[in-house]
Specification:
The protein is of the alpha/beta class and 252 residues long. The chain has helices spanning 2-10, 16-37, 50-55, 66-80, 98-109, 122-132, 151-163, 225-230; strands at residues 58-62, 85-89, 135-139, 168-171, 193-197, 215-219, 245-249. It has a 7-stranded mixed beta sheet, sandwiched between helices. Helix 4 links the parallel strand 1 and strand 2.
Length: 252
Amino acid sequence: MRKVDRLAIRDAGLSLPQLMENAGHSLARVVDAYLQRGSPAESGAAPQSSEEARHKPILVLAGNGGNGGGALAAARHLRNWGQPVQVALSAPPGNLSEATAQQLRTLHKDGLRALWPAAPEFDARFPEWLQEASLVVDGLIGYGLRGPLQGDPAVLVEAVLDRAPPVVVSLDVPSGFDASSGAGAASGVVATATVTLALPKTGLLQGDAAAAVGELLLADLGIPVYIYERLDIGGVRGLFASGPIQHLVDEE
């Protein structure tokens, strides 16, 4: 996927912000579909209706790289569709990649104010955001994870694991799992659904990740087929003929 992404930008002329937009729009569509379903009951409590879910905020967790940029793009789409959204970053705004920072600036101009673990109000407000959330979007780390989660991303993931929100939708790979091998630590996100991008990652159905991806969906990033064929990746032509989001595996 690194090779696919690089070639899509260098040869096909797609930009990183454009790929983030495509990822974010697909992610937002899946999140919206889950909101319309409502959430299952927790610990014997009554299930949350779809109407109740749509009036509670979505908590978007965004990392400092491309995965976070896609999650922030999704946050903007969801706000445009009338859904309340709160954003927690895994790093201060000044430490975000340029494309991800631009996504945040757009949200900031629209009135959204994000938190991050070192922010003065984080300890007081983040637990409340997590408690109130109808759904959590995991956009912390995509296919680039090497080794166990550390630092502020681990702080956010551990908080989610402690709270066990009704629904968690991960972008590309549940944070904490290796996209190639499926290896992960106890602190990895356990997703209700995973929206993986462009191609299924080999690790999603292997190792520890197999029990953490939930419902597995594949979203089209808009990368031309010739890019895959140039890299000797077969079976892509016609993959999205029936729609831009393909269902791969049911939630267990």
